[in-house]
Each structure stands twice: as C-alpha cells, then as structure tokens.
Amino acid sequence: MAVYMAIWSFHNGRNFEDQRSFLERLAIFEHTVDPSITNMAWIATYLTATDLDKFLSVALDKGDALFIAQIEKGRCQGTLQLATWRWIDERV
C-alpha cells in the first residue's frame, strides 16, 4: 500500500455540489487531513498515482487543479500535527 499527498484547488465559481462530488470520491479511500492545511489530504491506497489521479479527476472541471505525490518513509518533513504524522508513519 502506498501513501499519497493530494492537493487540489477548485476554480472560482464552482458550486458546492461539484466540490462535494470530488470530496465524496476522496472519501472512498482511507485518508487523513491536517486541520492546519486546507485542500490537502494524505491517501492510503493500492492504486498508482496515475490511477488515483484519474479516479479523482473525474469530479474536476477544466479550471480545477490536482497534484498527487507519493510519500516515502524518511523522505518528507514538515510541521504537521502529531496525529497526522502518526497516521502517515503507520502506513508508509
């Protein structure tokens, strides 16, 4: 299983229903968020980054943005809440 960091941005004018569609697709996966960072989640899945991007992108519009990066043990650092680090460390 891999852990990915997903960052997204909805273009101005997106309605709540469109955003909810994206978040519902995200919710299918085991994931966590850090309360201090918006529009970002860590996702645990057996999918590749390409397949995860394809799955989540279905709910995006042309002006939206999505970035997926795989997290590797010992190759990331930051000032996240302890619970977020624990979640990541338990899965990579």
Structure description:
By secondary structure, the chain is of the alpha+beta class. The chain has a single domain, classed as Alpha-Beta Plaits (2-Layer Sandwich), CATH 3.30.70. The protein has three helices and four strands. It has a four-stranded antiparallel β-sheet, with helices on both faces. The longest helix is centred in the first third of the chain and has 12 residues. It starts with a strand and ends with a helix. The mean pLDDT is 92.
Q: What are the SSEs and their pairings?
A:
Blueprint: E1 2-9, H1 16-27, E2 30-32, E3 40-45, H2 49-57, E4 65-71, H3 82-91
Antiparallel strand pairs: 1-3, 1-4, 2-3
